[in-house]
Amino acid sequence: MVKVRVRQHVNPLSSKYQQSASIPNFSDIYADIKKPLHLDIGCARGRFLWQMAQIEPEWNFMGLEIREPLVIEANNWRDKQGLNNLHYLFCNVNISLGKIFESLPTGILKRVSILFPDPWFKRRHQSRRVVQPQLVQDLANYLIVGGQIFLYSDVEEVAKEMCDHFLAHNSFYRSYNDWLNKNILPVLSEREKATLGKNKSVYRGLFIKSEETTHREVTENS
Questions:
Q1: Which of 8, 16, 53, 116 is the most exposed place for a label (fewest CB within 10 A)?
Q2: Given a cut of 90, is residue 128 above it in pLDDT?
Q3: Is 28 a catalytic residue?
């Protein structure tokens, strides 16, 4: 299959991406819409979820991506494999997350991954980074108590900023005081494989949704 050529960077603040997503009837997509849901924000070509959906058929998976050609390509891959627990949606997550979850059963979001988001290095562009306080609040609204949020980056500054946003919200606590020393998901993303192949560091944070109104960080030794 020929890879779709798309722009590497898309400005999520441009007017083109301020429209809410077109939401499908998820009951027509998932064989069992009440299965626990893993949401991958910024799924790119979707290969990570494509593998996850086959390894964990007892889960549903949804990938959100702002570059529409990648979403089309990913759903074609899904269809070729005949997977009925996986869907990719073209959207700006900071615009459409609420609308998406209004169309899903309550209490199904149990896991979220934000893996290697665009770092937007220039200071004037950092408002374009995907993890913003409103996204953290939206995830707090929909993630079940005990649900997990995985934050990975190969840029320490970006990983730290993502973690700081979640630490600032009283619905989440960090499961480890320091970075995870290895991936604890069943699959490595394409970007993580490439980063490790270059002997570069990956900074991994894990956050848990709590019913407590205030928390402190806790350390779990692996």
A1: 8
A2: no
A3: no
> Cα 153–154–160 angle (5° rounding)?
55
Q: What are the chain's domains?
A: 29-209 (3.40.50.150)
CA distance 151 to 174: 11
Whole-prediction pTM: 0.88
- Give 25's contacts (C-beta < 8 A, 6+ positions apart): 103
What is the SS3 string spanning the chain?
CCCCCCCCCCCCCCHHHCCCCCCCCHHHCCCCCCCCEEEEECCCCCHHHHHHHHHCCCCEEEEEECCHHHHHHHHHHHHHHCCCCEEEEECCHHHHHHHHHHCCCCCCEEEEEEECCCCCCCHHHHHHCCCCHHHHHHHHHHCCCCCEEEEEECCHHHHHHHHHHHHCCCCEEECCCCCCCCCCCCCCCHHHHHHHHCCCCCEEEEEEECCCCCCCCCCCCC
* Strand arrangement, sheet containing 203-209: 86-90, 60-65, 37-41, 109-115, 148-153, 203-209, 172-174
Q: Which of 40, 118, 138, 154 is catalytic?
A: 118
What is the rounded distance in angstroms from the CA atom of residue 73 to the CA atom of residue 25? 20
pLDDT in tens, 190-221: 999 999 999 999 999 999 999 754 333 333 43
> pLDDT of 86-95, one tens digit each?
999 999 998 9
Is the separation of the CB atoms in 214 and 170 below 8 Å? yes
